[in-house]
Specification:
The chain has 1 helix and no strands. By secondary structure, it is an all-alpha fold. InterPro entries: Cytochrome_c_oxidase_VIc/VIIs (IPR034884), Cytochrome_c_oxidase_VIc_sf (IPR037169).
Length: 61
């Protein structure tokens, strides 16, 4: 009894793997960007803004 060939499975699995990889990659990138990078940048901006204000106040006195 011969086994019937499996046709189209590799192609279906390929697109599933590609779409899953891209979906997880984009999700991880967005989680990093909005969960870590933007809050950290806000911290940096606030620090340097406070530092600049202190320099301006020191220069005016």
């Amino acid at each position: 009894m011969p086994i019937a060939p499996i046709t189209g499975m590799l192609r279906k699995r390929f697109w599933l793997d590609i779409s899953t990889g891209l979906g997880l990659g984009v999700s991880a990138g967005a989680a990093f960007w909005y969960g870590y990078e933007l809050p950290r940048r806000t911290q940096y901006e606030n620090f340097y803004l406070k530092l600049e204000k202190a320099k301006l106040e020191a220069a005016q006195q």
